[in-house]
Amino acid sequence: MNLKTFSRIVLAIVGGEIALIIFTTIAQEVLFDGISYNSSTLSEIVFGGLATFIAAILAGVVARLIIRNKINAVPLGISILISLEMTYLILNGKTGDPVWFDCIAGGSLIVGIWLGFNYPKFLSKKTGAASTKESSH
């Protein structure tokens, strides 16, 4: 791996993480004025969770647009950052929500990042040809 590729990977991870922060803030704080297991209604949790999942997909797309190639180190790096943040918040009691609720929320962010990052696979009519072409990079 050369320096240019490494730099683009780091840039895509940072850009994807920044996009995730912005999009999830809009989804959770602007649209729903905060999502919490203890204080939100069931409909707020469901629709806020869906909006947050869509935000993660969009952040994955942003990361893919930055890197331009299918380099799985990018969504893996973002997934590790999500896991580290979630672990920190749970262990330090920063969320006030049940652990299972936080784990599902973090897991949905990770799944959304991977889905968004792999969007060309879902848009391509010839998925086999697209994935073969992308894996050669």
Q: How far is it from the N-terminal to the C-terminal residue, by CA?
A: 11 Å
What is the strand tally?
0
Total of DSSP H or I helical runs spanning 4+ residues: 6
Oligomer: single chain
Q: Globular, elongated, flat, extended or rod-shaped: what is the shape?
A: globular
* Fraction of residues in helix: over 70%
Q: Which radius of gyration do the C-alpha atoms yield?
A: 16 Å
Percent strand: under 5%
Contiguous runs where pLDDT drops below 50 for at least 5 residues? none
Mean pLDDT: 90
User: Helix/strand/pairing class, anyone?
Assistant: mainly alpha
Order of helices and strands: HHHHHH
Major pleated sheet: none
Q: Would you kindly provide a brief summary of this structure?
A:
The chain has about 140 residues and is mostly helical. The protein has helices spanning about 5-30, 40-65, 75-90, 100-115, 120-125, 125-135. The chain is about 75% helix and about 0% strand.
Could you describe the 3D structure shown?
This protein is mostly helical. It has 6 helices and no strands. Helix 1 (3-30) packs antiparallel against helix 2 (42-67). The mean pLDDT is 90.
Keywords:
single chain, 137 residues, mainly alpha, globular
